[in-house]
Amino acid sequence: MGSKNKSFSKMLSARLTSLRSTLATKLPPRVLLPTLSRCYIRVSPILKEHISHMEKDQLSFHQSELTSFFLTALDFRAEHCQGDLEATAVMEGYIIDCLLAMVMKLSEVTFRPLFFKLFDWSKSHSNDRLLTFYRLADHIAERLKGLFVLFAGNLVKPFADLLRQTNSSKTSKPKCSLLLQYVLDCLRKIFLYDSHGFLSAERADALTGPLLDQLENTVGGAQVYQQRVTRHLIPCVGQFAVALADDTRWKTLNYQILLRSRHGDAKVRFSSLLVLMELASKLKENYMVLLPETVPFLAELMEDECEEVEQQVHKVVQEMENILGEPLQSYF
Q1: Which sequence ranges form a coiled-coil region, renumbered to this chain (predicted)?
Q2: Which of 68, 204, 290, 327 is 20 to 30 A from 83, alpha carbon to alpha carbon?
Q3: What is the DSSP code (8-state) at residue 55?
């Protein structure tokens, strides 16, 4: 009887392995992804609530096991995404939401090794992991606020490298645009919640060029570029300026924006004006010291061959007058 059971178990195991392989290789993503998503969607809220009710000593005891589970679950994008970014994003969102429940119960000491384990995980196997990690980092930054800034120093070089690597108009891959969005959003939160002087001169220098080069990065096409600039780049650069908190650094930042306003592409000149307006609105009266170098560039743009750019520069001047509370004619 025992040998029959063993033989049956072996046969069943082989059939299940075969079935799993067939499901994984034969089903199209439009069928498999929603099904897998429903499984995670049903299980994730249960695990999330379970983690929320865990005592700290229980969580500490099971943290290694939970970390292993999340590292496997977070590989969903890398393992199963065949181009259906929308379905993958929904699925991944549930996993991230569940992981955040654990993150919020950890102390700084217990969160640190988890974060760097996730960071190391993101650097191997697949570029899809980068997407997942920086989306997760963006969510963690939103929840931990100033505490996350304490860990963000290690991300400065990777942030700068990613901004450079994704700065190419030769590709229109949606994943590239998505990664840029997560990086810019995460950076904005780091700058927003920085109350400990995170932006040293070295870090500011490392990020200024790669950030402002995004004004020239038309990856994804004109519409995606416009959305990325208005929704992600402008808020990020504006908060970057606030976090710089230094006249000399503001001058460098402002001048780098002004240089982009002479770009050969009208879209880039137009976007530069939008960033300039954001800079003035964030710095308010502090922007006065930057006016003398700004005005010659604005004067040039008033004669721009592109009508949209010409109209926008008048809006910028008007907005600056409102912010600074005085007319700017005397500067021209």
Answers
A1: 299-326
A2: 68
A3: -
